[in-house]
Amino acid sequence: MTLTAELPGVKESDIDVSLIGDQLTIKGEKRAQHDEKQEVEGQTIHRTERSYGAFQRTLTVPYRIDPGQVSAQFEDGLLTITLPKPTDAVAQKEGTKIEVKKGRRDASPGP
Predict the structure, then answer these.
(1) Which end of the chain has fewer surrounding CB within 10 Å, N or C?
(2) Which domain holds residue 83?
(3) Inside any domain, residue 111
């Protein structure tokens, strides 16, 4: 399974990807600063704009994955996470059937 996330303006060092159980979490923070300097009628005007914000998304993976097999790459604002499908993925999704047995009814009242 491959997951991609567009993260424009985010630096690689500001991204955290973790897998705990069947929960894949992507965290990050975007920080930007824009400086502008203008000469207007003999005066210098400095303008600085700063913006920032944190984000976090958690997704449930449909099967158990070995965290050592997960890889993530970040290039040009695009995060690509590769989650290799385990060989027993179908069995994990189907689960285990539990046999239901006929029970005995006891004539005596409960405690």
Answers:
(1) C
(2) 2-94
(3) no
Record the pTM: 0.64
Report if residue 51 sits inside a domain. Answer: yes
Secondary element (H or E) of residue 26: strand 23-40
- Residue 51's alpha-carbon distances to 32, 33, 54, 63, in angstroms, are 5, 6, 11, 38
Residue 41 confidence (pLDDT): 83
Q: In this structure, is residue 70 part of a structural domain?
A: yes
Read off the CATH number of the domain in which 54 is found.
2.60.40.790
4 vs 17: CA distance, rounded Å: 12
Mean pLDDT (the chain, rounded)? 84
